[in-house]
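During the reporting period the student researcher (J.K.) took over the structure-prediction task from the postdoctoral fellow and processed the backlog of single-chain submissions. One of the processed entries is reproduced below for the supervisory committee.
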Amino acid sequence: MNKGGRTRPRRPLIQQQLRPSGLLPLVGEIVRRLRGVELAPRVGGDVTRVIAGPAGGGGGGGGAALTVQEEDGTPIDTAVIIIRVPNGGLVDNGSGDVSLGYALAGAAPAAHGISAHTGHANWKVLYTDGSGDEQELSLGAAPSATLGHTYLRSAGASSPPTMAQEMKTVTIVVENPTATEDILVSFFFQAVTIREVQAGVVGTGSPSVTINPVHGTDRSAAGTALLNAATAITNTTTGQNLTSFTDNTLAADEMLRLKTTAKSGTVTELWVTFRYTVD
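J.K. obtained the following structure tokens:
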């Protein structure tokens, strides 16, 4: 009462404007002022509601109202007694103190690293589809005796990417070869593995050339044999496929050379293709 014996009317709670930059600490103050906070699941369980009851009493929606508005002034509500937040976003700190533990719409996103993305399947690469949604793509197989390198390849500006194989080869063609050739095929700056050899000849009178490819770092040295044995190449159509090796691993900065050790018939062309993978 005041000195005149009249009852002084209860002052309404201070109206406050909720702004994105200050909303999180303000919510705790709102609930402390409203008192009698009740937490209960909304029908469907998709949100949690904060019900402000009357001062000194339990929840029930009969407390004084707040004015809540967006920063630009619209929309605005001058009779707010319930503030709803998504499930899991409200933390009860006790003694009428709560916190919001989620990002507000329109607020600056919190910085986060790759470790925050944990909902994907194992060993996938990600891309976005035509709707902007994240999609997963399985990694390609490792290179082997039958497979080349796999890589992420675009299928167009508006199509999903794919994992495609890339076959790495080097080919040498020798015209009118002799039985004593020693020709540099390639210098490899990286370590590689020769996976297979395809070779053929062109000529008449049962043409045949025996090849014995070698590799090493010294051009003047004999070199290390690639094949398990020197092999006569006699096929004049699709060529012969060779996959038996003595040493098919080349270290970085090694040279691959084609040697011949015998020839018969009239041979006008010898061609040899080496398929390899980078180690």
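The committee noted the following: The first strand starts at residue 38 and ends at 41.
J.K. will present the remaining backlog at the next meeting.
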